[in-house]
Amino acid sequence: PQTIFLRDYEAPHHWVRDVALTFRLAPRTTRVISRITFVPNELNRGDLVLNGEELQLIAATVDGAIVNMEVDDTHLRIASADLPQKPFVFEAEVEISPETNTALEGLYMSNGMYCTQCEAEGFRKITYYPDRPDVMGVFTVRVESDLPVLLSNGNPVERGDGFAVWHDPWPKPAYLFALVAGELVNHPGRFTTASGRDVELNIWVRPGDEDKCAFGMEALRKSMKWDEDTYGREYDLDIFNIVAVDDFNMGAMENKGLNIFNSSCVLASKETSTDANFERIEGIIAHEYFHNWTGNRITCRDWFQLCLKEGLTVYRDQMFSGDMRSHAVKRIEEVLALRARQFREDNGPLAHPVRPESFVEINNFYTATVYEKGAEIIGMLRRLIGDEAYRKGCDLYFERHDGEAVTIEDWLKAFEDATGRDLSQFARWYSQAGTPRLKVSESFAEGRLTLTFAQSTPPTPGQPDKAPQVLPIAVGLIGPNGDEVVETRVLEMTEATQSFTFDGLGARPVASILRDFSAPVILEREMDAATRAFLLAHDTDPFQKWEMGRMLAKDTLVALILEDTPPARDYLDAIRAVLTDDSLDPAFRALVLGLPGEDDLAQTLFDAGVTPDPQKIHDARETLRGSLARHLSDALPTVFRQMETGAFVPDADGSGKRALRLSVLSLLTLLDAGKEAKALFSKADNMTEQAGALAALLAAGLGEEELAAFGQMWRHDRLVMDKWFALQVALAAPARAADVARDLSHHPDFTMKNPNRFRAVFGALPGNHAGFHHAGGAAYALLADQIIALDALNPQTAARMTGAFETWRRYDADRQAMIRAALERIRAKTGLSRDVTEMVTRILG
Ligand code: B3K
Ligand code: ZN
To answer: Which of 143, 182, 256, 845 shows its CA 20 to 30 Å from the CA of 391?
Structure first.
């Protein structure tokens, strides 16, 4: 396969002015008739180059005449000499087969409904087109079908018997094209924009799901309002449609005026969705809506600039969720996810810059690094320049680039011009891969505290040496009596080593460093348990407070793993203090009660030069859970009762209480043989508590009856059954995990064609760390078999699953050999997709 390089970017030979498409829908013989006005690019003249894959060409003309053209598996090309040197009309008719499209890219069918997914390069499977984001055109789409609901981008212009016409006045790249046709019902809503535009809103779902749309509709309205209030950005069409689709490769897609969602990311009801689902749905609806300005009105010049829209839009949805719920809790959740996914990626063979410099298959770069680290960069920029300058820079960016396809340089230039700052060193965040390590040492004399920092970033594939990056380090100081003596101050570090001083201090304070996780770095700091416990008790910064509990837990676990040292009483007491402190937000207390995951511990050990033993890690974590349960035994039932909520409301308050209640229950279950959990399971009126109780039982090796009852009760609900599949795999005893997953893959309701169901089983398997890495390697072999089989149907999702192997070099020689064999077996498969080939090759290194 061919590698594409950022440095090879070349402007297109032709721009598109407008596009008229007609779709005659039929499951295996859909006809797509296109009429495209091309305008030669005066600055880069050349052949007309159109992408096209899996298309059957029926006819094509230029200005109505047949011309010479070269057609192969991927392109249609017309030589410059055969083209008018002025605007011309290209017309084509092709045939495609949505029903047999199991890759779920381009136009495909899901339960009798037609839908599309074009980002990144799916439009080329619909018709011949310059399928690149810098070519933007005005689309008019006619959909012909007897199905009752026919949707496309933009505003509806005509509706008749068996057809509908849509027009999108905003020029857009082909990746934002969408079409939906099916027997759907809508949950309607309305929104009036700040300037008085009345917008029709709809969430379209399959009949039977209409009672699961109200929460999503509210989330959409809140998002529209928030973008007006916070960024001054209004919606720009008469209608905004969301459609729920069962078979979808990712979460959702921001097509202009017609967002398409994985049904798991929009359908919500208290009976079928957990608090975590509600929170995620709110965040994803916001994310896709926010793309209307950051992604659609201003898009990417080329796919290397993906973080331009994704990092920024993730940052925006994070701030929205913080505003809707709790910034403190949200920030801790973000850091947990960042460390679990992005730091893990940055630490292994798949590490790449936030703006990659090359790719084989762009779908492999929709990563935690592009998204989450991309969002961290925006957060750092804002922290460095301040809120007002941030807004000024954004305004300038929108004003300057509306309607354009731009680059990271354009984004940064807007901030340089708005603030007068030089951001050239800051730009390294986009080009250097790897997580910076930040060492700190402290000294105190004569009322002056000196913090000396040293930064370094380890080598990553293709990048042996790194230059220092700009790090905003938020620091506050806590006096010996627990009072804050210096409020948060942002230190701007630009050198490899740099010192900062705080003067006029009466006594030596304890520094709280990297408040709010102000930069995505690994902080290396010598600190004894007593100081950590002190900050856990007194820090005013919720992130640092949580972080101290986390580090105490981690040290406790490492000591258990390496030396069998039982947990220190001080640690257990510190946790008890947090658990029983009514002045703290229950959601925060639940987070402090949560222990570091097994994958996280494996990395910690590896970084300390110890080869991780997955079973030992698992056992230590179970031992600590047992110690915590016994030590807190008197407090657990009390907190469990206190956290009972009345009527289910999926807001920050209710979900926080339930989160704490369920963390407590999970410990309680180790003491009471599952009595409370069984009781809660049978009386719960919401999925959060029902699934939470079941999880508590399964984690304690109990709950077989409840598992069966759950499966029986929800057998008709796909989304809930995904939970049923996933819980069993995730919580299986390590020795049984591979067998459980294999058995479930033979369950009559298992299908590889539905990505949610596939992920429920084979995404959950690597999540069971000790199970996935169980001696003997059964899980490795099983996952390899499944990836090979899925690749033939759906390369994109298959490629994503290979990430399970990215940490293989952490483990012992036996495990490494088994994983290598699994990866090589995948790679050797004839006809393997470009997607999986690239991933496996990179992972093997
Ligand atoms: N932009 C889409 C992701 C498309 C993924 C293509 N493999 C969803 C999002 O980030 O909003
Ligand atoms: Zn996005």
So the answer is: 256
